[in-house]
Amino acid sequence: MPRRFYEKDGDLSLLKDKTIAIIGYGSQGHAHALNLRDSGLDVVVGLSEPSASRAKAQSAGLRVLSTSDAAKAASVIMVLTPDHVQADIYHHDIAPHLAAGKTLMFAHGFNIHYEQIKPAPNVDVSMIAPKAPGHRVRELFSEGAGVPALVAVHQDASGRALEQALAYALALGCLKAGVIETTFKEETESDLFGEQAVLCGGVCELIRAGFETLVEAGYAPEIAYFECLHELKLIVDLIQEGGLGYMRFSVSDTAEYGDYTRGKRVVNAGTRREMKAILSEVQSGEFARQWIEENKTGRRNFLAMREEAKNQPLERVGAELRQMMPFLKKKKETGIPAGA
After folding, report:
1. Closest by alpha carbon to 225, among 307, 327, 324, 305?
2. For residue 88, which phi and psi values (nearest 5 degrees)?
3. In this structure, are residues 111 and 117 in contact, taking their beta carbons and an 8 Å threshold?
4. 108 catalytic, yes or no?
5. Overall pTM > 0.70
6. DSSP 8-state symbol, 12
7. Looking at 30, 108, 113, 154, which residue is catalytic?
8. Strand blocks (E) in the chain
9. 108-147: pLDDT as tens digits
10. Cα 280 to Cα 104: distance, rounded to the nearest angstrom
């Protein structure tokens, strides 16, 4: 069983005399910068000169430097930009200032695990990965709570890499909920598999297939949207609160019986074979190679798929129906991005 750490395991004094550079000010970046600042630590934000996030960070009272200057000034450098740009940022702006004794940190292991970033052996390399979006990390910290996180150490040049990572987790608020020890390999591969097979790829295709099945059978698109997408949150909230058992306790006996007798016909042996194939592609590095190549060649396929997804009937119907539900929080594309 992996080790678990709580507030008693964190020592904030390990970071008190250090400058911490948060590289990026997107979803995770803004939460890390503000939480660490509010925990009494010296924080700078590293952003490129044209970044639209510079004004946001400055208006929050944070000191903003160029990415290169932030890396030069800091003893601890947390990289929170999107995976596909991290290697370029590292080689151009961080590596020249990564002197012996410094610490390089990540919230996802992709670039270390797939060797797009190879730090010199004289620096600590660690990870604190909150298991929640950045806005939730910030929200719960502000309420005096925290979200769970993972901790991993890739290089321990100082002999205290884990202790310092736990100090960072304490400042972020995660030790209030608990931090579980993992490795860069385990975090990266399990995270990618979960996104592709279940949380994003699996769920999105299941919703779309259910919607299209009902519409093709003659049911109103509005009814299909409610049954296959809108009500999903109700089910997921129950599962998150108490597991599958609590969800089944909370729904009707009819729904529970349908769950037991029909669910395996959707997620069947063929589905499981594909899940294993997806995991194999993650483990072998095939997915990483495809994604890295896609970004090197202009992201044409990715952008085409994004545009196609925006124009699906499911999305058009949903946009209309959500106008009936002002209680839903508006999700604007101009909000805080994944990284900046």
Report:
1. 324
2. -65, -45
3. yes
4. yes
5. yes
6. G
7. 108
8. 4-5, 19-23, 42-46, 63-65, 76-79, 103-106, 124-130, 149-155, 179-181
9. 999 999 999 999 999 999 999 999 999 999 999 999 999 9
10. 29
